[in-house]
Amino acid sequence: MDGSGYALSMTSSQPQNRPPGTSDGPGAASASGALGTHSGPGTRGTHDGRGAAGPTQAVDVDAVQRRTVWVLIVGQVLGGIGIGSTVSIGAVMAANISGSDALSGMATTLSTLGAAASAIPLARLAQRMGRRRALTTGALLAASGSVVAILAATLSSFPLLLLAFAFLGVGTAVNLQARFAATDLASPQHRGRDLSLVVWFTTIGAVLGPNLIGPGEVIASTLQMPSLTGSFLIAVVAQLAAASVYLVALRPDPYLVSKSKQEKNADEAEPGAIRGRGPLVFAIGSIAISHAVMVSVMSMTPVHLINHGVTLTIIGLTISLHIAGMFALSPLFGWLSDKVGRVTIILLGQGLFAVSLPIVALGEDDPVLVTVGLVFLGLGWSAATVAGSALVADLVTGAARARIQGRTDLVMNLAGAAGGASAGVALVLIGYAGLAWAAGVLVLVVVVGSFVTRSRNRVTTEAR
Fold first, then answer.
1. pLDDT at position 272
2. What pLDDT is stored for residue 6 in this prediction?
3. How far is CA 167 from CA 87, 100, 126, 139, in A?
4. Which of 97, 274, 361, 381 gets the highest tally of CB atoms within 10 A of its CB?
5. What's the confidence (pLDDT) of residue 264?
6. Which residues of 201-214 are buried (b: 16+ CB within 10 A; e: fewer)?
7. Has residue 3 got a pLDDT over 80?
8. pLDDT at position 374, please?
9. Pairwise CA distance, residues 397 & 382, whole Å
């Protein structure tokens, strides 16, 4: 039985582990109040997604949250290996099979479209049956994408390769949903911290993944597989391992426990509410635009470096350092967003982009400068995505939360797909430096949007 069989019962015991000055408010995964069994009327099990209610058991929300975060961390490490081992080689494989650098961006485009297409179905699955089944299903679909990629390389089929990247994109959707899963039971004052911790541990897998290109080639050669496919075989193993972790260990299910808690809380009995549509639009828009900036420049970097005679090993290192920038400081950005405000850290992300893009553009012929620029690119993405995601979680309550989170990931990935699709054409027409300068225009859009939003809307105390 997963978390669906658990119910919460609140007693009047003294609050525990309550930070000074805090109180249980709407949306809070409160640490206050003892959680104990109750055999009297009013205790009920949550729905398990199969039409039956599970047995009533006591749930310590704090303990479930701690366990959830660690399970998500392990899944993120494994999923990061699966994504990292393929993302840096995808554009090169697409260029090789299609015979055109202009089509190399299609690898990222289809991957992000796959993530976009699966975001809402996975969110709906989470609403009906919990995070455990949604994350497990997504990881299995991502593993199947790596299998199809190997088949596409064997047959030299570009259409089949595009299908493979669409399925691989589901792995990205899983990683994105996992960050929101970390907020299901988190208290409002710790949402940014818990979300960013899960994001941070993606660093291990995502940085390790691109450096597995060399070992992957050894595996491919040993097994007499086509060139560049060894990384995809590694990704199959990593995603299957991630699926196993989610399936076995994500019990009780955090979303279903949170849903049960909301049913017990009169303030959360509503189907869900949005606290300020203007700030929510800005939050989702800043996440999406920041993702488009990152994807457009990052996806063309391997192709640009290959054309300058850089080895696959150096390219793998470059992408690894970029991914380290994306995730390594996410706990710091999460903590800062809790302390100084979500919008402030989103703007910090745009400032980091403003450092990155000129370095990339002016240093396009120097692999070292390109690498430095990509590190700052990753840092900018991290600050904007962590703070923006926490702002979305702040502004949406109840059952609406999973739905809006799914839409956030949909918009984010559609923006990434547009960035990846246009980046390949831009590389051919205006070059790598021109692509970087063009991405800078998007940064200005977010900065202007922040001032417009602040002038028209007073963001809630939690969101500021």
1. 54
2. 33
3. 13, 22, 19, 10
4. 381
5. 60
6. bbbbbbbbbbbbbe
7. no
8. 94
9. 24
Residue 427's contacts (CB-CB under 8 Å, 6 or more residues apart) are 101, 102, 104, 105, 300, 303, 304, 435
CA distance 328 to 321: 10
The SS3 call for residue 358 is helix
Q: Which positions ≥6 away from 401 have C-beta within 8 Å?
A: 180, 272, 393
Asked if residue 299 lies in contact with residue 107, where contact means CB atoms within 8 angstroms, the answer is yes
Sorted by where each starts, the structural domains of the chain and their CATH numbers stand as 62-269 (1.20.1250.20), 270-403+418-464 (1.20.1250.20)
The values of phi and psi at residue 274, to 5°, are -110, 125
Q: Which whole-number Å values give the CA distances from 243 to 131, 141, 327, 369, in the listed order?
A: 12, 10, 21, 38
Q: What mean pLDDT value characterizes the chain?
A: 80
Question: If we measure between CA atoms, which residue out of 250, 232, 248, 246 comes closest to residue 143?
Answer: 232
Residues 420-424 have a mean pLDDT of: 81
The rounded distance, in Å, linking the Cα atoms of 461 and 45 is 34
Is the per-residue pLDDT at 52 higher than 80? no
Contact 200, 328 (CB under 8 A): yes
Main-chain dihedrals φ then ψ at residue 10, nearest 5 degrees: -95, 135
Q: Nearest-CA neighbor of 74 among 195, 326, 242? A: 242
